């Protein structure tokens, strides 16, 4: 939802970073929580969580996703933020500064930058669909509970190469403009105020969805696990979602950690972010699946699921069209914030490591994304036949980033803290130099990072990718 950057913070409360550049941090405890939550909450909740839950059998997937979040996601998030706060720099410089001499742990930061580009290449297209839906919702052409109508409307958008490209370029220019004009602070302020309205709308959608005929079928699908559906590839997808949702495994949270105040309680903040993020995904699930079953949509519809189902729910509400416009406007704002947070990784690395000014780093990032992103934008039209392992370029970017790059990043971040950085330093960071009395928790998290998380991620990846 929201993002952070140098512009977003209160000037004057910064301190010199290890790279020698002046950095400024979040000014208040609430600001820290809101911005971290802002990176986690985005289209991952509204779009990715429902479509993956639908495509992977429902409740069983949800169960594994929650377990992966607790056993792997939360410890890695704590590790990243702790490293970032101590390093006070971009992920490459942080890892270089904190690693024992001569060990190339900084490669995690470099891989993270590639991960950010890959995610942005398809995320920008989904944001493009959300933007386009604001206009479609205004025209009213998609407000229907007939799957044929809503599917045709979505199909018309994604199968048109010009529309797909132009909306994506529009998104990239818009985001680039926000960064170049240095108005991220304003966007953050707007986001913080408007997100409660999105939350209220989601609650309203849940209430409407729960009143539908076959609401119970939707709830059973979402909450009653069918264990036979939990295959190795389902487990890998659920774990990948946990990484994607919490924005971990590629340096975003490390970058955010570098803006954290020294007295911020890292364990408490991460647990709150994780819990709130999970609640918002649940609300999206409860809003969508009862409607899926009532109106005869396919839960396995894939990335289209939300775009074809949400109009059906709004079609059941008085003033549904107006409210749907509001919904997609708010979703656009949430998506914009998540994109700004993703862009922070390459922009800060190009700025602090390569020495480009922030505007130049921003322009270069946007230019690269126009090229890279077009493969995702054209995946359902010009490049529809161009498949790798049976997947379109969009699906490849989505799959490879969440299920390969982020988990590998997670393994190395866990190994770095568990074996190279060590318990003492981790404990100092997590307890605010001993001011918080949370030693038992720290030991438990450290144990997970040293042994459990890396082993679990590796096994899940090898099994899920059928390499073992
Ligand atoms: N967590 C965001 C979402 O769920 O929409 C997406 C995201 C943002 C992923 C930042 C990774 C990241 F670094």
TrEMBL record:
<keyword id="KW-0769">Symport</keyword>
<feature type="transmembrane region" description="Helical">
    <location>
        <begin position="275"/>
        <end position="297"/>
    </location>
</feature>
<feature type="transmembrane region" description="Helical">
    <location>
        <begin position="399"/>
        <end position="421"/>
    </location>
</feature>
<feature type="transmembrane region" description="Helical">
    <location>
        <begin position="361"/>
        <end position="379"/>
    </location>
</feature>
<keyword id="KW-1133">Transmembrane helix</keyword>
<keyword id="KW-0813">Transport</keyword>
<dbReference type="InterPro" id="IPR047218">
    <property type="entry name" value="YocR/YhdH-like"/>
</dbReference>
<feature type="transmembrane region" description="Helical">
    <location>
        <begin position="24"/>
        <end position="47"/>
    </location>
</feature>
<keyword id="KW-0472">Membrane</keyword>
<feature type="transmembrane region" description="Helical">
    <location>
        <begin position="59"/>
        <end position="83"/>
    </location>
</feature>
<feature type="transmembrane region" description="Helical">
    <location>
        <begin position="441"/>
        <end position="462"/>
    </location>
</feature>
<feature type="transmembrane region" description="Helical">
    <location>
        <begin position="323"/>
        <end position="349"/>
    </location>
</feature>
<feature type="transmembrane region" description="Helical">
    <location>
        <begin position="165"/>
        <end position="182"/>
    </location>
</feature>
<dbReference type="GO" id="GO:0015293">
    <property type="term" value="F:symporter activity"/>
</dbReference>
<dbReference type="GO" id="GO:0016020">
    <property type="term" value="C:membrane"/>
</dbReference>
<feature type="transmembrane region" description="Helical">
    <location>
        <begin position="232"/>
        <end position="254"/>
    </location>
</feature>
<keyword id="KW-0812">Transmembrane</keyword>
<feature type="transmembrane region" description="Helical">
    <location>
        <begin position="104"/>
        <end position="123"/>
    </location>
</feature>
<comment type="similarity">
    <text>Belongs to the sodium:neurotransmitter symporter (SNF) (TC 2.A.22) family.</text>
</comment>
<protein>
    <recommendedName>
        <fullName>Transporter</fullName>
    </recommendedName>
</protein>
<dbReference type="InterPro" id="IPR000175">
    <property type="entry name" value="Na/ntran_symport"/>
</dbReference>
<dbReference type="InterPro" id="IPR037272">
    <property type="entry name" value="SNS_sf"/>
</dbReference>
<feature type="transmembrane region" description="Helical">
    <location>
        <begin position="194"/>
        <end position="212"/>
    </location>
</feature>
<dbReference type="Pfam" id="PF00209">
    <property type="entry name" value="SNF"/>
</dbReference>
